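User: As part of a screening pipeline, I want to sanity-check one entry by hand. Below is the sequence and the SMILES for zinc ion. Please return the complex as structure tokens so I can compare it with the automated output.
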Amino acid sequence: MSSLRKYFVTTIAVVLVFTINFLAFAESNNLERAKGVILLIGDGMGINQVKSAGIYAQRILGKDLAINTIQTSGLTTTHAANSKVTDSAAAATALYSGHKTNTGQLSILPDGRKVFNVAFAAKKAGLSVGVVSTTRLTDATPAAIYSSSARRDCEAYIAGQLPEFSPDVILGGGGAYFVPSSQQGSKRTDQKDIIELMKGRGYGFVENNSDLKAVNPETVDKLFGLFSLSNMAYVIDREGHKVLSNQPNLAEMTKIVLSIVGRNSKGFFVMIEGGRIDHACHNQDIKTMITETLDFDAAVGLALSYQKTHPDVLVIVTADHETGGLIHLPDGDDFTIDPLPLEPIKRSLTYLEDKIKTAPDQQEAILKSAGLNLTEEEAELLKNNQTKVVEEKPSGNGDKAKRKFAKSATLEALSMITSQRAKVDWTSFGHTEQPVMTKAVGPGEKLFSGSYDNTDIAKKIAEILNLSLPIPALETDQTSIFPQATGAASCP
Ligand SMILES: [Zn+2]
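Assistant: Here is the complex for your manual check:
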């Protein structure tokens, strides 16, 4: 080869290598940005929870879950800083801020520094923020958006931080922590009236579905909704109930929040939580778990339709952890849930437990009217369990976790009966360390395929919304940028 030819071959080779490298670099940096992010969190919604609800939807309702129509999907690890098994506080902190913390802590690191999250960053950048949950708004998943607390159970203290953060729209339960102690049902120890404070800051206030339906999302900029004193009712318990039937479902709340925050030309960050899937799993109540997951899925469906007409919006569906260690038992060659025996059940097991407690002699009639006609064998199981557990009630020195999730004899037996009917079982009364499924549709969705940690979700959201997450700091360092609690009540 002549030296000139050698020169050209080498030059072409160098140019080719450079071009290929450049294209690869451009590809990796060709990040899509979204104008809005809708983060939907199924609390306690593990893979088998979604599978159970999916089989129920297909076989009983003749439809597919909206969640299952999402193509891009990944697996997310959920451990806390101090435990393989997380709680909702450490998980929510990780999902919004990108930092691991100890269980029980909201937006505060083990060393005491406070963290910034994507909602703070979004607000600072002029985006709108929306928060929706079926639990108390002071419960961990919604609370970690707008507050920080070394203890998640300081709910009055947490509520006191809401007016400072002021998400544009916030809807859910937990009214007891927002009304002064003089008011009936209040769980505050002071006279702070946070609803009045919020009204003073220009918020429209709604307390039932009729109020919510009357809201004109074109003219309202700030909306605060408290639909119950504690958690909102399980969807299954609302039907035909005089008061509870006027609580909005998750999709109705999602619709309003999107119509309001969607008007901000700078964009938005919205968190929607199906918060009571977790509670149903703690109670090992399979039918209620399914109906709560279906309620959550309807909100996912609504977010997906919104995304279709707003292609610059990213929808993410995930869970904070799995609850109950739900497994499907063998049915012939298959491991699958049998949804048919669950179909007639019309109330949650805790609702039935309460009714039975007040009228034990009416037990059979109560169960029958809720669609739970017990076979002779099942009636025997219930009777035996009610006697047995009373006799063997553990003393105060029993296992701590068991005591924490201890169930009444009635609830335990009803859970066994319905689980056996559906051919499922539970391996835990609490949360498990199983990874959860994360799905995404919209700009940047590809970042959500593969395996990653829950802390990565916050980082991905920040990247896609072009937000920067400031470094965590001690409160004393940066008092001006953290919200101050108005009314500390019983906690720090
Ligand atoms: Zn949780």
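Points to compare against the pipeline: The domain at 36-327+431-481 is CATH 3.40.720.10 (Alkaline Phosphatase, subunit A). The CA atoms of residues 77 and 435 lie 5 Å apart.
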